[in-house]
Amino acid sequence: MDIRVIIGKIVFFITTYLLPIPVFAAIWRRLTRKLVDSFHEAAARPNEVQTEKLLDILKRNSSSTYGMKYDFRSIKSVDDYRAKVPVVRYEDIQPYVDRMCKGESGVLVSEPVNYFACSSGTTGRSKFIPITASFVEEYKNHQKLWFAVFGRSFPGLIRGNWLTIVSNKIEGYTEGGAPYGSISRVLTVRESEIADKLATFPRGCFLIDDFDSKYYAILRIALSNRVSVFSAVNPSTLIMFCKKLNQFRDELIQDVERGTLASWLKIDAPLRRRIESKLKPDPRRARRLRQLVEKNGELRPKDVWPELCGLACWKGGSAGFYLRQFPRWFGDLPQLEFGFLATEGAFSTPLSTEGAKGVVAIRSHFYEFVPADIRDANPGDPHPPTLLAGDLETGKEYYVILTASNGLYRYDINDIVRVVGECGATPEIEFVHKGGNMLSITGEKVGESHVVRAVTAAAESAGVRLHGFSVSIRLDEIPRYVFAVEPDGAPSRELLEKLLRGCDLQLKQVNMEYETKRDSGRLGEPLLLTLEQHAFEAHRKRRVAAGAPDAHIKHPYLFREEKLLREALAVTGEVP
Predict the structure, then answer these.
(1) Which site in 19, 395, 421, 479 is 20 to 30 Å from 218, CA atoms measured?
(2) pLDDT in tens, 12-22
(3) Using CA atoms, how far apart are residues 334 and 373, in angstroms rounded to an integer?
């Protein structure tokens, strides 16, 4: 065995079994103190830091085709930048990206582009975002601070493995030969052989194509190891992890008892051998798992892995529906927000496990903010009035405009954030929802955040547990909202009717325009569509099979047309 592997295993044993958690916490705080203090110093002067960041990006890319078109060399201030460079969306820069995908250099950026990150395609087909070394460093400025907060929040992480569900597969190659895939590929992938040998979860597990095989393999390894932290970008992934734990629990327990790996898994032979080499018969562990099933009727991570000390995932926007399911599986474990992140860039970094807020990541990229009401009133304005981070007001909502070292200049990401506090002079923000991602047939403007709050409250009030839901509009003579729900089990018609009444009532309470349109008769009585069991899981599988990164798939809360909802969720029946 490689001496480096032996040393790594010794270090892991010492930290996992011998190092006191308070000692680790003290060491970690000391190691990260300079980084945290440096961020707080920068947070006291956000506009100055941001201006420096902008001018640096422009200087480095002034010789690019785009830089010469807009004369980056002549830009000496933020005001110059606002005046010379228009706000754009992806369709505006796609011709430049297409040239880069064909292998042309120096188009949007001056430095080499060796990878393209694909967006998850929430608002359309996937977008190709150029990735440069400078951009990766900008993104990692967020990651370094996040890891500092992560260790401070969960010092108990040393008592087990960190299980994070990632999508770091290369999906294909551009015409020019550059690979493309998830942004995770360039941020988390373990390239070295030694790193993969030391890893409890081999990288290959996360690259398994078959949906069920991937989850089973990860769960099988986890059940033979200590796990102290679960993380996934989307909280829906963590809920799926819990569902798969119970879907396969009898077979998993049998495998734990025998030290085997299910024969039906669709994985290649080398990975199977790699996983099987880590497994040993453990009748005692299997007996304990069966006792948990007998006692609770299901396997819950909080019971299966008593070393669990925390969770990490998105907590903003529409994540609340899944977060409310966490106590069943994870008890009261603290949850750390990943931050407001996207394929295009990192926008905020949380400094604690409190809420979904994060401080604007002023040392990563350059950001401008447009008041939401102004942007909505003039959606096509290429030069909207923008504010810098230090100019925002608590309680107000803003669209975010991004400039980064990936060739995105004044890029309208079409996301809305709300300012909820401040760190020094830098605002703390929460993601609200995508701009324009709403239903509005009579001017009611119902967004994701509205339906998540309404349906979640209605389900709790009715006593109906939901695996998921989506909302659309039926274009009858009088338009009507359609609430498509996947219940857990088979609730009675009376309970479902109560759920529907609650959805209507709660949506009125969270959206005054919906209330007005309903009360005036411009919107008719809503309808309830009960989906088949596993409808949303099947939708997720289809997205994965089509090439979408599993860890990045977002729950489809809104469909502008009922036809699209039915196609996505394979609905054939009519509303009862």
Answers:
(1) 19
(2) 656 666 788 99
(3) 35
Q: How far apart are CA 339 and CA 358, in angstroms?
A: 6
Check the CA dihedral 88-94-99-104 and report its sign. Answer: positive
Dist CA 468 CA 479 (whole Å): 23
Count of all residues that appear for the chain in the document: 576
| Burial group, residue 396, by CB count within 10 angstroms (0-12, 13-18, 19+) | middle
Facing residues of 559 across strands?
Answer: none
- Cβ atoms 461, 327 nearer than 8 A: no
Report CA Rg, the chain: 25
User: Both tokens of residue 338?
Assistant: 């990943």
Q: Which of 262, 250, 254 lies closest to 216 in space, CA to CA?
A: 262
Close Cβ partners of 523 (under 8 Å, ≥ 6 residues apart): 441, 442, 444, 478, 479, 480, 481, 514, 517
* pLDDT tens per residue, range 416-465: 999 999 999 999 999 987 776 678 777 677 888 889 999 999 999 999 99
Nearest partner of 442 among 533, 516, 382, judged by Cα = 516
Give CATH 3.30.300 domain extents, the chain. 438-568
Instruction: Report the C-alpha gap between 417 and 400 in whole angstroms.
Output: 7
Architecture of domain 438-568: 2-Layer Sandwich (3.30)
Q: Which of 432, 508, 502 is nearest to 469 (CA)?
A: 502
